[in-house]
Design a protein that fits this description.
This protein is of the alpha+beta class and 264 residues long. 38% of the residues lie in helices and 19% in strands.
């Protein structure tokens, strides 16, 4: 895919639904979560994630909470901690972002209507903020190698169908529109061939004159759903094309390792 001119790319989690019947929530990308230890007064006392007598009464254990019942206990523990004072008002702050980014909060599952209704307004806000941030951070590649492999998989999985759809449009558009579609098809075919042949490469991008990123990781919403904004990437595409000697450049960013450029 050829990209021209200055670019701004946003990574967003749109309309994260809070009710399981809507099934629109972002799912966990990783089950493993590291242990966080702090004062028991803050509600971080460890507890088992298993069921029965060992049901989770806090939120700082490893792994994903198995069901909404465990999540209710975790959320109520969060509400007792000053760490989540801003989340209780529906706002993410740096302290909560760091906990989610570093995997120090158990993954929250979807809640059903009754479970959601059992929470106070501040507890609902905490749930919405934390789960939205977990969706955003789970979607981020954790290493530069993963960023490349994720993109290659997207190209291999989705580009053949995209090319077929564009080809189907050619007979029903004007000649000018057909020319644009043919250019897009050529770009998609070139990227697909590069992915199939293992020719896509990734490069760490430390030159801020070429690529910069704004890592927002915010959450907003209410009764009917939550949405979040993750990363906005700003890039000088002509300069990148010149620097890497190819028209095919795709800039990106991850809070786990910084800015990068994929080329082919």
């Amino acid at each position: 895919m050829r990209v021209g001119g200055a670019a701004q790319i946003q990574s967003e989690l749109i309309a994260l639904q809070i009710l399981s019947r809507a099934s629109g929530g972002a799912q966990s990308g990783s089950a493993a979560r590291s242990q966080f230890s702090a004062s028991p007064d803050d509600g971080f006392a460890g507890s088992s994630l298993s069921g029965g007598a060992g049901v989770l009464q806090t939120y700082s254990a490893s792994g994903a909470l198995a069901d909404g019942g465990n999540a209710i206990a975790a959320i109520k523990a969060m509400a007792k901690s000053s760490v989540f004072r801003n989340a209780a008002q529906g706002n993410a702050d740096d302290e909560v972002r760091a906990l989610v980014r570093d995997g120090k909060l158990a993954e929250l599952p979807a809640l059903d209507e009754a479970q959601w209704a059992s929470l106070s307004k501040s507890e609902q806000n905490i749930y919405g903020v934390v789960r939205t941030l977990q969706g955003l951070y789970d979607a981020m590649p954790k290493s530069i190698e993963q960023a490349l492999s994720d993109h290659v998989k997207i190209v291999l999985d989705s580009y053949p169908d995209a090319i077929a759809r564009m080809q189907d449009q050619l007979s029903s558009v004007s000649p000018a529109e057909a020319d644009l579609i043919k250019q897009n098809i050529a770009g998609y075919q070139g990227a697909l061939e590069a992915a199939q042949q293992g020719r896509m490469q990734i490069h760490a991008a430390s030159d801020s004159s070429l690529v910069t990123a704004t890592e927002e990781f915010s959450a907003s919403g209410g009764e009917f759903g939550w949405s979040g904004r993750g990363v906005t990437v700003h890039a000088d595409i002509p300069a990148l094309q010149s620097a890497y000697g190819t028209k095919n450049v795709l800039p990106g960013d991850s809070p786990y390792f910084g800015t990068y450029v994929i080329t082919w």
